[in-house]
Specification:
The chain is mainly beta and about 150 residues long. The chain is about 15% helix and about 50% strand. The longest helix has 5 residues.
């Protein structure tokens, strides 16, 4: 029997903002999401890390935008019209996460969230705080703090 950290520290229902990078589906706890923007104007930052897209102005607040595909080490997908920037709150700082497209807000029973498989050392192993099995596959629940570390 595994210990499910969601059932011990989270409410019974977790709402996930789901999104896609290529064919991979992920989710972020909706409580971390501030807003979702459609292709905001971004200023590049010279000599920044390769996963930093640049910075954007969000109503007077400077927000660093990260290409989540590059950060997670997934196969590059060309930017398109469905790209969105998910603004998350991490340690009282807003960070933008560029994704390929947005899915739905999915209510999840915390009892159905399983720990990421221990025998993998990829995106789910390094950046997921849990996984959710669905009829169509897995949703990796991103640990925002691990992604931004």
């Amino acid at each position: 029997m595994h210990i499910n950290r969601y059932t011990t520290i989270q409410p019974e229902i977790l709402e996930l903002c789901t999104f896609y990078i290529g064919d991979h589906q992920f989710g972020i706890n909706i409580l971390k999401v501030q807003e979702i923007n459609k292709n905001p104007p971004i200023t590049t930052v010279p000599q920044s890390q390769k996963f930093i897209v640049g910075v954007m102005n969000l109503r007077g607040r400077i927000v660093t935008v990260i290409d989540l595909t590059a950060k997670l080490g997934l196969e590059f997908t060309a930017p398109g019209r469905d790209n969105r920037t998910i603004i998350v709150n991490s340690q009282d700082e807003y960070i933008g996460l560029r994704v390929d497209r947005i899915g739905d807000v999915v209510p999840v029973k915390t009892a159905n969230v399983e720990p990421p498989p221990v025998n993998i050392d990829d995106v789910l192993g390094n950046f997921a705080e849990g996984v959710l099995k669905t009829d169509t596959g897995l949703i990796g629940i991103l640990d925002v703090e691990a992604v931004l570390a």
